Amino acid sequence: QVQVSESGGGLVQPGGSLRLSCSVSGRIFSNYNIGWYRQAPGAQRELVAYINMISRTNYSDSALGRFAISRDNAKNKVYLQMSSLKPEDTAVYYCNAKWREYDWWGQGTQVIVSS
User: Is pLDDT of 111 > 90?
Assistant: First the structure.
């Protein structure tokens, strides 16, 4: 069973930065496509950033230019570096790992952007 866990969330002031980490178990991590999603209260879950198995990346319009996704296959980790954070970035951030027809979710990490 693949396990996904997120860390790195917290309270940050507007304009600040955070780095989220996603750890994924499994021997074929390098074959997984990984997405960072977020869900704000009362809103649908949305894709923020995505990195595929050859490290090709894709970002939502709101994340483009402020967030950067990267992966370290040796550590089975994916990172989301978030900069210039805004109050509207407040949400629970989830990591999703996909391989073929399978996908796995973590429990999420809370990010609050507030002064």
Answer: yes
What's the average model confidence in pLDDT over 53-70? 97
Question: How is residue 8 written in tokens?
Answer: 């790195």
Q: Is 29 helix (H, G, I), strand (E, B) or coil?
A: helix
49: amino acid identity, one letter: A
Residue 26 has pLDDT above 90, yes or no: no
For residue 104, what is the DSSP state? E
Which stretches of 1-115 are assigned E, i.e. beta strand? 4-7, 10-12, 18-24, 33-39, 46-51, 57-59, 67-72, 77-82, 91-99, 102-105, 109-113
CA atoms within 13 A on the CB side of 16: 15
User: What's the CA gap between 90 and 10, in Å, rounded?
Assistant: 10
Tell me 87's DSSP state.
G
Residue 84 pLDDT class (50, 70, 90 cuts) = very high
